[in-house]
From TrEMBL:
This is Lipoprotein. The lineage of its organism: Bacteria, Pseudomonadati, Bacteroidota, Flavobacteriia, Flavobacteriales. It comes from Flavivirga aquimarina.
Length: 221
């Protein structure tokens, strides 16, 4: 299997000679730009069948770093079950390398090259609904949906944010709540993978003392 990168698009040439294309999610900049000792996996989007998804994982080696290439047009509803499957596959492998990590591959528009977002320790919870009190035990919550971004603090103060100013609003909510601790993220399953990566990239830029973004992420209806 070979692949080429051109303008944020991966052209995958499969062993059978068939070509497939993945439109990578875009980020404005990446902290991780180079990874060695890797194995790729691919989640394809079928333009003729928007609800379909195909996972190609034939070349994955459990002891290597995994680069998961996801088409940005897919939804979280489509993607997350396959991501969880890959995580379980690596975790349960008889051949393990504790130093090997998992990354999403992105197109870094500032460098016009590949960038990567790590998700090794992320634990995905798929929920029919989200109960802040029972699920999160009164911790702070970030809710990302198609129409809005909502910040709910541990003391039930609610702040609404625009996509372009989520970090600013988060800083303001922390100041007003006078509480700096762990934040849990909840994502609506209708979001595209591009939406998800955009939010993840923005949160990676968050630099507030004593604030931690939890590895547990909730995917809700």
């Amino acid at each position: 299997m070979k692949y080429l990168l051109a303008l944020g698009t991966l052209l995958i040439i499969l062993s059978c000679g068939k070509e497939k294309v993945i439109q990578l999610p875009e980020i404005s900049h990446s902290k991780i730009t180079e990874i060695n000792d890797v194995s790729p996996a691919y989640l394809f989007y079928d333009e003729t069948k928007p609800d379909s998804i195909e996972l190609n994982r034939k070349n994955l080696i459990s002891t290597t770093n995994w680069l998961v290439n996801v088409d940005k047009r897919l939804t979280l509803k489509q993607v997350i079950p396959h991501i969880k499957y890959l995580q379980d596959k690596k975790l349960n492998s008889s051949h393990k390398n504790k130093a090997a990590k998992n990354y999403f591959t992105c197109n870094d528009t500032s460098k016009k090259n590949l960038g990567f977002i790590e998700f090794t320790d992320v634990v995905y919870h798929q929920k029919e609904g989200l109960n802040v009190d029972s699920d999160l035990n009164h911790n702070n919550l970030l809710v990302f949906s198609l129409d809005s971004i909502t910040i709910v603090t541990h003391d039930n103060k609610i702040f609404n944010a625009e996509k372009e100013s989520v970090i600013i609003t988060l800083r303001d909510s922390l100041t007003l709540s006078n509480k700096k601790d762990i934040f849990y993220c909840s994502f609506e399953k209708k979001l595209t993978f591009q939406d998800y990566i955009t939010f993840k990239s923005e949160l990676s830029d968050l630099n507030l003392k004593d604030v931690l973004i939890a590895d547990d992420e909730f995917i809700f209806n």
